[in-house]
Description:
This protein has a five-stranded mixed β-sheet, with no helix packed on it. A five-stranded antiparallel β-sheet has the order 3-2-5-6-10, with no helix packed on it. The chain is built from one helix and ten strands. It is globular. The chain is mainly β and 100 residues long. Helices cover 14% and strands 48% of the residues.
Amino acid sequence: MSPLRLAAAAVLTLTASPSFAITFHNDHAEAIRIDIEKWVQFLNPGGEAVFHPSTDPAKFRVESRQFRLECEAPADAEVRLADYKCYVDGELAAEGQFHM
């Protein structure tokens, strides 16, 4: 197979693979910080952020001035952070620990 055909096949393979994303929603009354892999995102109340993880499942940490929690989500999930809890695709996945 010619190098040009190999390159074309590689491009088709790369573009055909699905693009996974975790969508974070902040339903808290205060801003939160999300740490996942080497990515740090601050979300204001009502804010939303999208992250494309390199691992499946992805582990992340959420912090505010009042609580901290660690959670895990599959590479194509919707994460809602509310009431000091982490919900992954509507299911309770973790509860926060209060700190001062």
